[in-house]
Amino acid sequence: DGSTGWCINQNNVHSTNSLRMTLETAQEIYADDRAVVTNGPPDSTVRAVPCDGGYRLTGRWNFSSGISHATWVAGRAPIVGPGDAPAPGFGREGHRIMLMPRNEVDFVDFWPVQGLRGTASFSFEVDDHFVPENRTYDPAGPMREDGPVYGIPTTLLFASGFSTVALGIAKASLGTAMKLAESKVPGRASRLLRDESTTQRIIGEAEAVWHSAKAFLREAHASVWDSAVSKTPLTTEQRVKLRLAATFGIQKAKEVVETAYTLCGSSAILDTNPIQRQFQDIHVVSQHIQGRSTHFETAGQFFMGMEPEGNF
Fold it and tell me: How many domains does the chain have?
């Protein structure tokens, strides 16, 4: 299920930030075996004003995947002074992550989407809410440990994870199409869809696309993982290749799902057909920042000997 995979990846990657928190705060949150920390990008209303012992936080955060199961929420916020002027000396770009128990924020039921509906990526908001200093951290601050997973940039953890989700959706869509082909006789046809040579060719080509995308992602990730295990700094080439493989995986997964959807014919439009959800899900994943085609430009710049731009 795409929504389940999405939420698991979101929470798994975000949990690596526990090593940027104080040890006491991390223990407070993760002592609960069912701990889930959700987060979402801030909108333009978000402000954190320093005060005695912490911050007064106001604003709204959207796209908070899995918030229905969250025990804590994390909100990124710019630290501002008088007149909303950026306050100096507060981490990367003057931002900090604010941690709050789920019951301290207002839940906003807003997720009117077709794909990945099961992620329940609703919004949350607070108004002049006090957040103690020890429940905040610098998103680019040092980590307390140096295990392999913590040596991989967070953006690449998200990229490879969401690409894996996309490839999972794509594989499921092929299964849906092949199962339908075993029993469907298309209109004005005389034999099962599975017995048509065109169907066999389409499935073969789609499997080739899927396996090539998966292999590229595994190869790029294995290289990065080996360096992380040996504590060898990642090269620009490794980072760019993993970024490229992740985005390629998402885009090729979309291509595979569209192929499967088309193969299902008019049966694909029914809500009762799993391909409908798979089609909607992949078109949400591919719209995410990790699937942007501009990442191909970053890779192209690198391979052409230019200084690559972008997030990798």
Answer: 2
